[in-house]
Amino acid sequence: MTAKLWKAARCIASASAFLVLVVIVFGSHAGSQASTAPDRQNTQPYRVSVDLNLVVLNATVRDRQGRFVSGLHEQDFGVYEDGVRQSLRLFEHEDVPVTVGLIVDHSGSMQPKLGEVTGAARSFVQFSNPQDEMFVVNFNETVALGLPGAIRFTNNPVELEGAIWRTAAMGETALYDAVVSGLQQLQEGSRDKKVLVVISDGGDNASTHSLAQVTSRAAESSAMIYTIGLFEAGDPDRNPAVLHRLAQATGGEAFFPGEIGEVTAICEGIARDIRNQYTLGYVSTNTAQTPASRSIRVVARAAGRGKLSVRTRTGYRAGGGPR
Q1: Among 300, 286, 260, 279, CA closest to 94
Q2: How far apart are CA 240 and CA 246, in angstroms?
Q3: pLDDT tens, 161-192?
Q4: How many of the other CB atoms lie within 10 Å of CB of 23?
């Protein structure tokens, strides 16, 4: 199969191993003409259909010093599902545009921190791909999209700053509901790669969703979740374990700055992380259709590169949606 066909398959494949029917139509405007001129359908040159159980992973590779590692080749990676090595069918290392949701805590304790958070959002945009599309979810005990109703997505830093300031910092915390809302909004985006950046203390005392529900939805989605924990040492509402769990389930990363001034640098680092990832895809050698959780481990080795670490999604649920 050609590299172009695999790239097309990747564009509609879930990052969590769904059964995908890929239909590539060669011919000018064939799809739009089909509904208006059925008698002209036979003018299409040909159609290729491929059934794939394609597992797509976004992987960040770093060296011992924590630096991004570029220039690796397909043969430098080993992908294992339940301990069994898999053959790669898709390999890319490109800076592709993404759909990004900024999930911002507006509970009462966040009031003095919002200025720094909006500055960090501005830096995130500056270090992101210019073709990224972004949105904001604000939450305290209620959850609301930050951009005005007519604007669904933007890459304008001024609009994003305004979106964060649209909600006052007061009240309790519905973190789980906000993450679910963010995952839903991601599906409205046009980019294949999806990311959430959650800024919160990790506590929740107002959601209708449970932690089990939100972590299940996060793991079932194709999104990577990065979390930034903002809380004081004695904050009774802090819950770093939740922020760790959301990030680990999706191949993202959790950050806990010692000072609020570190948030900007963290957001810049997240933007760079997103832009420096490898995309790996394989068709599982395990053909069992019974729903079951399967674990994934990815390793990278290359001569002269020293010890390399790989961060990616750790598993999926076969036969019943991703884990």
Answers
A1: 279
A2: 10
A3: 999 999 999 999 999 999 999 999 999 999 98
A4: 11
Please write the tens of the pLDDT for every residue from 300-309: 999 999 999 9
- Are the C-beta atoms of residues 313 and 16 closer than 8 Å to each other? yes
Contact 16, 321 (CB under 8 A): yes
Question: What structural domains does the chain harbor?
Answer: 3-94+277-318 (no CATH), 102-275 (3.40.50.410)
Tokens of 171: 């009240």
Give me the sign of the Cα torsion angle 139, 189, 294, 61: negative
Mean pLDDT along residues 257-271: 95
> β-strands 77-81, 224-229: how paired?
unpaired
pTM: 0.81
Q: Kindly report the backbone phi and psi dihedral angles of residue 227, in degrees, each rounded to the nearest multiple of 5, phi listed first.
A: -125, 145
Pairing of strands 46-62, 309-311: antiparallel
Convert the pLDDT of each residue in 206-243 to its tens digit: 999 999 999 888 877 879 999 999 987 777 778 999 99
Please name the residue ranges forming H helices in the chain. 3-12, 30-36, 114-126, 157-165, 175-186, 211-220, 240-250, 263-275
Q: Which two tokens stand for residue 57?
A: 């992973």
